[in-house]
Amino acid sequence: MSTGKQFGRMLRRIYTRPPEPVPDEHKKLLLLVGTAIFIASYDLNIYGLALPQIQKSFNIPEADVGRIIFIFRLGMIPAIFLSYLADRIGRRSLLLITLAGATACTIWTAFAQSLPEFIAAQTLARVFAYTEELLCVVVIAEEFSERTRGWAIGQLGALASFGAGFAALVFGFVNLLPFGWRAIYFLGAIPLLWLLWARRKLKETKRFEDQKKSGHAPHPFTSLITNYPGRMTLLAAIAMPYAFGMASSVIFLSKHLQSTHGWLPGQVSVLVIAAGAIAMLGNIVAGTLSDRIGRRTVLAAMIVASAVSFASFYTWAIGPWLILFWTTGLFAYLAADILIAGLAAELFPTSHRSLASALRLFFWLVAGGIGLLLEAELYEHWGSHGTSIAVLSLLTPLSLIAIWFLPETANKSLEEISAERR
To answer: Is the pLDDT of residue 398 over 70?
Structure first.
């Protein structure tokens, strides 16, 4: 065996395996919640991939593309209330409710007959999808040990990459499928129905049950404001600049390649699938590495890598450079995304962990939405999506400032990081 292959196997063994054995019940839990991350990623990536086709169906003006995504993101506002309920009545109940809602709205999207109906269906779908995603991270953080928590969160990121890649695979046949982009949405609803059935035996997390039994269940909003307001501020200071600069970068991939470089849908699919496969491994490595050297170090590296990659992709990159920078950008972006989501679950106690995660996502989506609106204005000024996106992506390193003021969460129990305060 060559030295290169031996080295590759060594890296996979060290950085993709959990630091300690994972119980079978936790593996099953990872499958039940991770499947939802996979499907949600599939659904949320369809709009960006099939954007030219959806534009044609509903006659969407070029300048309104980003504005519509901003409307979609308003679905995070009611998602905050659902997350609040998860801190009051439990994670399990809300996971079932959000999954059922996401299923219904995905089917509705496939049959939408007008632009207002399409926007309504997708906005409501995101209410459930956003809540589902953040609750999945909360459940994993609460159930896995401190030594495997980063690895498990990395697995969720890998499944999100897999979902995006699978969406790209199906998108490659958009011109062959009956009803085009509508069929892609409809196909995404089928596994959601299976998951609803599979989750019927899902148990409540032990930490939530223990808190209920203790008789100490502070009000989530009150607890968040009085106990850890500084951490919430720092988390917002990390999430907002990054989301502001990155939102357009991910959404406009397919359109940039098809409109600017003349790529066909099938070629876009091949790139997204290949990059997604690498990003899957990257998420696992980033999660495992964050258990070894710390969340803050890995997160900072991913933020810088994604900003440089996407700025290059949308400006001077052509030919093989497009492939390289999209791959490195997606790898770093998805790793940063899941690490920030993991921090939101780790930095706060059980009484308001879901609410804090929802507020983090709210700041993320609002900042990203503002970035999309600004991109639309910059496009009208410069007449180029690529230039507009590149300028916005250069603002993301502002997130690095707040990272180093947060406590390191790797290899610490949740109680050590964020004890309940009475």
So the answer is: yes
